[in-house]
Design goal:
2 domains, 83% helix
Length: 121
């Protein structure tokens, strides 16, 4: 499991370095996940090497939200002074996600039904 944590931390650090190189356009953690995904896809790293560490981190994910929650409570006044904007953004983005997921599902469903229809004929 130590090996898995080392791999995950290595790719996190590499992701942070890539993020700095591209001007923080994409967060380092996201770059690191993309790099780890590529390494797993290209079979530079075996999935079993990171499986236990990744599962342990995922099982305890709630702990990672504690610092963010404390930060939100600390900035309560700023949040309350902008509650209309925050609520509007939350509602609009939620609706956009619902619409995009629905349209994507319909598109993929049509594509799958055409593929099944073509195979059977």
């Amino acid at each position: 499991m130590i090996k898995g944590f080392c791999y995950i931390m290595l790719f996190y650090v590499l992701g942070e370095m890539v993020s700095l190189l591209i001007g923080k356009l994409i967060p380092g953690s996201v770059c690191g996940m993309i790099l780890l995904f590529l390494a797993l896809t290209l079979r530079w790293i075996r999935p079993r090497d990171v499986d236990k560490a990744a599962s342990a981190l995922t099982r305890n994910m709630a702990l990672f939200f504690v610092p963010a929650s404390i930060g939100l409570m600390h900035e309560y006044k700023i949040l309350m002074s902008n509650w209309v904007v925050l609520l509007t953004v939350s509602v609009v983005t939620t609706l956009l996600v619902i619409v995009v997921v629905g349209l994507t599902e319909e598109h993929l469903d049509r594509k799958l039904s055409r593929r099944k229809g073509g195979v059977e004929q």
